[in-house]
Amino acid sequence: MGRPVLRFFILTLCLMVSIAARAQTPKLVHSKSLSTTGEPGNNLKIQYGGSMGTGTLASNLLTLRMTYPHGSTISSISDNKSSTYTLGISADSTGSGWETVLYYVSGAAAGITQITVNFSQNVADWHGAVEEYSGVATSSPGDGTCSSTTTTPPNVQCSAAIVTGASGDLIVASTMLVGGLGGNLCGNTSTSIAPGGSFVLEAADPYCGDAE
After folding, report:
1. Do 136 and 20 touch, CB atoms closer than 8 A?
2. Could you tell me which residues come within 8 angstroms of residue 89 by beta carbon, excluding any fewer than 6 positions away?
3. 140-185: per-residue pLDDT in tens?
4. Quick one: CA dihedral 178, 88, 124, 35, positive or negative?
5. How far apart are CA 77 and CA 75, in angstroms?
6. Is 41 helix (H, G, I), strand (E, B) or coil?
7. Segment 20-33, tens digit of pLDDT
8. Is 181 helix (H, G, I), strand (E, B) or coil?
9. Would you say 80 and 153 are in contact if contact means Cβ atoms under 8 Å apart?
10. 108, 161, 170, 199: which has the fewest Cβ within 10 Å?
């Protein structure tokens, strides 16, 4: 049996990606959320300890989701294991001035501990989240995507249906509440973040209205 594949989706900004799984059931191994506000820079470094304190475990899926100002351009993403970061999906909320993207590394090398994101210009407000999953296909895992930039929460959904191509797919759903508060990225506090249907809330940052 092949490994489950990946599906992504973004809402408000939100994205969802379906990822093909292996014979095992896909599982979240570790997650980390972080942000910078009012600290302009274009060389952002993410320290990632992973579940064992030594970075990623071999052959896992690593996802990197980021929200940053509309019009900003990522020039490179690198890490200490020379991984290749593939863009799974993006959503650009031009009206409220933000963009959310989700990159991933399939079949990650063991020991990824630092991820560096470079922009072509300084970025003052930025939010990032890293998730590591086991039991996912180690190559070409993408199996479908959908996204939305709706401005009418709390009930957020994709603009088009996402159809899984294989039984046991891992579906990664991510949402970021943006806008308001003078255009600030964080401070859009959400007192309750709850998943719908059979989704499971893996990580949330209520101060930034962020969830996966």
Report:
1. yes
2. 8, 9, 10, 15, 16, 17, 101, 102, 145, 146, 147
3. 888 888 777 765 555 666 767 777 777 788 888 777 766 554 456 6
4. positive
5. 7
6. strand
7. 777 678 899 999 98
8. helix
9. no
10. 161
